[in-house]
Amino acid sequence: MPNAAGSESVRSVPQPAEGFGSLPNQSEAFGKVPNRAERSENHTLTVREVARMFETAGVARTERSIINWCQPNRQGIARLDSYYDPNERKYYITPQSVETAIQEEIQRTKKTSEVPPSESFGSPVTHVKHPPANDSSRADVDSQIRELEREILDLKITNRGKDMFIEQLKSERSDFFEKLLIANRNVGQLETQLKRLEISSQ
Predict the structure, then answer these.
(1) Alpha-carbon distance 101 to 117, whole Å?
(2) What is the pTM of this model?
């Protein structure tokens, strides 16, 4: 039979799981990380004002592009330093980041407008020869042309029918007015004859 004192000492051995809960929880301090998305005194420009600045600098960009630059890319980096105000539902952007982006766009425009070195030295430009269109694409184009020609012909026929109908209405209208004038004249003549008969009968 095992010694009772020995069994008690076994029970008094601290269990490793007892001290586990006393370890500091690293996730508790997560909420204390300073919020870097807070608005600073430099976040002063609206999206519309930034778009006007780009337009003034000669590199006009749409407000949609400005909003896209305020949002982080796949690497989590936003091109413009901005703050989104959830109450006003607007982005506020720093002038420094706007100036940097404008200079980048100006440099990019200059690079695209520069003449390649091969052309500056007078070397001939190699023309790219496009492969001839295959028969199926030509057939599609021909069928589209024929369909458009049919639609144009139908529209011409419809317009001619409308013109004929309008002319018919005009002629009927003129005939109606002529008949109305004749009827008015006849009424006037009959009234005159009636008055003469009344006078002669008196």
Answers:
(1) 27
(2) 0.40
